[in-house]
């Protein structure tokens, strides 16, 4: 350790811990009258938010929640969720944002693993909750969240209904200071192999992430997505990495916030229009779903800025959204990273390029934000050159990355091998610092000694006018190791067969953009592509399905 000058604080100097409570007060200072809106059911201003957070803290404390306890939430995106994201950590407890789209067995696993003691359950999930309640090992009490007129439900050890409890509670709460390294939030990765893993974030990390996101999305001129006049509506569920941390950012800045409940594309468009939403974030498939909705067909979405992350943003979707007036910005992150790591940025050099070049950079994972360090390494952990060509595993350092997996020290140590967080993504880094995600390590297709990026192939296939959705996976091949297999959803009124797909890809091979081995050997035309609980292509399920189809000689398949 370097011998530096450290001056002890003056007697009485306040030691300022970075706590989530610090993010709550400034929004009301900037814009008192801005509203928090829940569907078409409720709206209130920032002073009321502050008051409701205090009321909830009183309700939880009276129910017996103590610092260090884990309090789980099962809800769709709502004002209640926002209040929980503040009140639970602010009393020193940990909020477990349950992924309600996992299977009941996985939800049960995560709740027992996280040692949840209290659970807030939306009336829609009462059946689901009761089906697993008998196997929950740590839960003591439940609290009902509901939009319905009945304010009770058949839940074991029910303390009461949220709104009724809040209105009876005091609007004052003296939020104490405590160690900024206390855990504030936890949730589980959607884990493609084995059980989901619990990641966790401290108050300090979430405060720094909030400041980081505000800077990346608010202060970089080529990005400029967020300012106090924006109207925010998440379309990434709040259980998916705390809606990417944006509710904390929006609250700190005093933005009008719109919470849409369960996602229904027609209703989302209606809410967007009515509340004049200007800023959202989502994974590509959710945007696709919104664009495919009936309501979107005659709508010009001019003025809507959307951050796309969680999966690669392909050119076809970028262009389709642009044609509808939407400004898309790609970003990169993962459950383990809080999540924001990087955002597409066009520096002066890129801005001077052609429209086509600019698009190329707008859809890449972008430039790591302030305080983020990114590098690429080989399988032994040696650093590789950032030359835009060499591919390696992306590794990261930032002050807001999970420091392990809850109660799984071995897996945590693997995540942090060599003191860098290993993303499991293959990437290049170029001289401008731009990250280009080539693929997930486990999704790269290894064929005939070559490595083919399933993401590249999906991007090129999606440019065919007939293709609405595509997923490419590698399937075992006795001769070549693996061969690419494409699953296609075709647009209404279009046709495409193996021959047309081959013709579409050939020019990219001739131009050297694609290896000839990358032309899929088989395609299947389907009506739907399997998705994960957060709407990403579920490549694990796709691989299983294909193996099954092949075993059954399914007529789905067409060989190229
Ligand atoms: P999750 O932890 O479920 O949020 O998934 C994180 C993973 O999503 C990353 O490791 C990447 O594989 C993928 N991902 C996220 N953002 C991007 C992006 N902009 N481009 C390509 N892949 C992405």
Give structural notes:
With 560 residues, this protein is α/β, with parallel strands linked by helices. The chain is 32% helix and 23% strand. Helix 2 crosses helix 3 (79-90), helix 2 (46-63) crosses helix 6 (162-168) and helix 10 packs across helix 11. Helix 3 (79-90) links the parallel strand 3 (70-74) and strand 4. It folds into two domains: 20-429, Rossmann fold; 444-559, ANL, C-terminal domain (GMP Synthetase, Chain A, domain 3, 2-Layer Sandwich). The protein has a seven-stranded mixed beta sheet with strand order 7-6-5-3-4-8-9. A five-stranded mixed beta sheet has the order 12-13-14-15-16, with helices on both faces. It has a four-stranded mixed beta sheet with strand order 2-1-11-10. The radius of gyration is 24 Å and the shape is globular. It has 19 helices and 26 strands. The protein binds adenosine monophosphate.
Widest β-sheet, arrangement of strands: 7-6-5-3-4-8-9
Estimated helix fraction: 25-40%
The oligomeric state is single chain
Task: State the CATH superfamily name of the largest domain.
Answer: ANL, N-terminal domain
Q: What portion of the residues fall into strands of 2 or more residues?
A: 15-25%
Q: Could you name the ranges where pLDDT drops below 50 across 5 or more consecutive residues?
A: none
Shape: globular
SS element count, helices: 19
Compute the CA-based radius of gyration: 24 Å
Counting structural domains, the number is 2
Largest sheet: 7 strands, mixed
Bound molecules: adenosine monophosphate
């Amino acid at each position: 350790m370097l011998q530096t000058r450290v001056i002890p604080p003056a007697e009485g100097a306040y030691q300022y811990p970075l706590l989530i409570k610090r993010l709550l007060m400034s929004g009301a200072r900037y814009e008192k009258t801005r509203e928090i809106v829940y569907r078409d059911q409720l709206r209130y201003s920032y002073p009321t938010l502050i008051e409701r957070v205090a009321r909830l803290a009183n309700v939880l404390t009276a129910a017996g929640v103590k610092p260090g306890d884990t309090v789980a939430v099962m809800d769709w995106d709502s004002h209640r969720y926002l209040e929980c994201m503040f009140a639970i950590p602010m009393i020193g407890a940990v909020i477990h944002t349950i992924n309600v789209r996992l299977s009941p067995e996985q939800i049960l696993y995560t709740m027992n693993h996280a040692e949840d003691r209290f659970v807030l359950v939306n009336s829609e999930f009462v059946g689901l909750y009761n089906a697993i309640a008998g196997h929950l090992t740590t839960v003591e009490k439940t609290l009902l969240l509901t939009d319905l007129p009945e304010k009770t439900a058949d839940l074991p050890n029910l303390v009461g209904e949220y709104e009724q409890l809040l209105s009876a509670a005091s609007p004052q709460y003296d939020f104490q200071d405590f160690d900024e390294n206390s855990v504030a939030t936890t949730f589980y990765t959607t884990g493609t192999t084995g059980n989901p893993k619990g990641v966790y974030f401290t108050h300090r990390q979430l405060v720094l992430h909030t400041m980081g996101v505000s800077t990346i999305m608010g202060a970089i001129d080529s990005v400029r997505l967020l300012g106090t006049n924006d109207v925010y509506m998440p379309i990434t569920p709040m259980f998916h990495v705390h809606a990417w941390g944006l509710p904390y950012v929006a609250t700190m800045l005093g933005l009008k916030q719109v919470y849409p409940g369960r996602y229904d594309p027609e209703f989302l468009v209606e809410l967007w229009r009515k509340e004049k939403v200007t800023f959202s974030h989502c994974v590509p498939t959710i945007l696709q779903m919104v664009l495919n909705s009936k309501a979107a067909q005659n709508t010009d979405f001019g003025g809507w800025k959307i951050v796309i992350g969680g999966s690669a943003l392909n050119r076809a979707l970028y262009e389709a959204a642009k044609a509808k007036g939407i400004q898309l910005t790609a970003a990169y992150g993962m459950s383990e990273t809080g999540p924001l790591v990087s955002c597409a940025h066009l520096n002066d050099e890129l801005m001077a390029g052609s429209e086509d070049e600019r698009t190329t950079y707008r859809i890449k994972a972008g430039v790591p934000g302030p305080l983020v360090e990114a590098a690429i390494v080989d399988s032994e952990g040696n650093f590789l050159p950032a030359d835009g060509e060499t591919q390696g595993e992306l590794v990261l350092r930032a002050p807001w990355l999970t420091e392990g997996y809850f109660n799984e020290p071995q897996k945590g140590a693997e995540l942090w091998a060599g003191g860098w967080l290993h993303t499991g993504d293959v990437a290049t880094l170029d001289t401008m610092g731009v990250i280009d995600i080539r693929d997930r390590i486990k999704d790269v297709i290894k064929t005939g000694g070559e490595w083919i990026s399933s993401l590249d192939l999906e991007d090129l296939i999606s440019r065919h006018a007939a293709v609405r959705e595509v997923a490419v996976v590698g399937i075992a091949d006795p001769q070549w190791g693996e061969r690419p297999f494409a699953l296609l959803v075709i647009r209404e009124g279009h046709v495409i067969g193996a021959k047309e797909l081959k013709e579409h890809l050939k020019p990219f091979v001739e131009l050297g953009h694609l290896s000839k081995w990358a032309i899929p050997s088989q395609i299947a035309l389907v009506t739907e592509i399997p998705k994960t609980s957060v709407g990403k292509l579920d490549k694990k399920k796709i691989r299983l399905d294909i193996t099954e189809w092949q075993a059954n000689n399914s007529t789905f398949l067409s060989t190229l």
